[in-house]
């Protein structure tokens, strides 16, 4: 069952050069109790897609088409997004080091969030905050309530941020590179925690990352973005990779000590570049004439791919 659907989202920015489009017909859905990974190189549009969902776009951004459907309502035309943000739809930001206010204790910040979204105050809010810290496995939760952010490790900060989402009973978690600033051991702990939340609470998670190894171990569905478009999407992505860009990403993963990394030649286009046809064609080894002239549609039944030359990897 789809809890949230993004349909044909088109977005751009008002730049000095004029309007520059950044997202092109982005479509995907979040299923209840599933992890949907949105992967791709930096600058491909992953984070701005997530910010569109929760209505935290910069002033220069402009949505020119599409829908984001939650509970049968288009959030792009709804005033409810401010109430939903932080309660039903919560963000786990990329950098836990700078996401907490250094002037307030963890407890104060949790209680404030609970007060705003749950309407609880006093002892009830404090109890709810302590329970949330217990859920994310922060030891000595009641004592940690008195700690300031600088007194916590990076992993503990990330757990505290997740606790804020859980305290408000979020149905959807948007995890934007949730393990980037953490060491490998803590990364595994955070992903184990997110999987437990998914299973026990049937929470839907949009995992934004460039780490395909992380995705292969945790995601129920994978959507690959390139230059503002989703080019491939599948539940069994790693078993049947079709798009040349997806295949190149797979080949760039180190498999053993003796293998050579295969880089993807060239650079992703900026939003200022107007590229006819498939936006990956300047870097694609499978490119043909049709790729330089026409934009391939995202097609398929269960396994979607936007490529004229798609082949099984």
Write out the strand line-up for the largest beta sheet, numbering strands in chain order.
Answer: 6-7-8-3-9-10-11
Note the run of SSEs as H and E: EEEHEEHEHHHHEHEHEEHE
Q: Helix coverage percent of residues?
A: 25-40%
Helix-strand category: alpha/beta
Model description:
- The protein is α/β, with parallel strands linked by helices and 313 residues long.
- 39% of the residues are buried.
- Strand 4 and strand 5 form a beta hairpin.
- The protein is globular.
- It has two domains: 225 residues, Rossmann fold, CATH 3.40.50.300; 68 residues, no CATH class.
- It is built from nine helices and eleven strands.
- The longest helix has 18 residues.
- The model has no long low-confidence stretch (mean pLDDT 89).
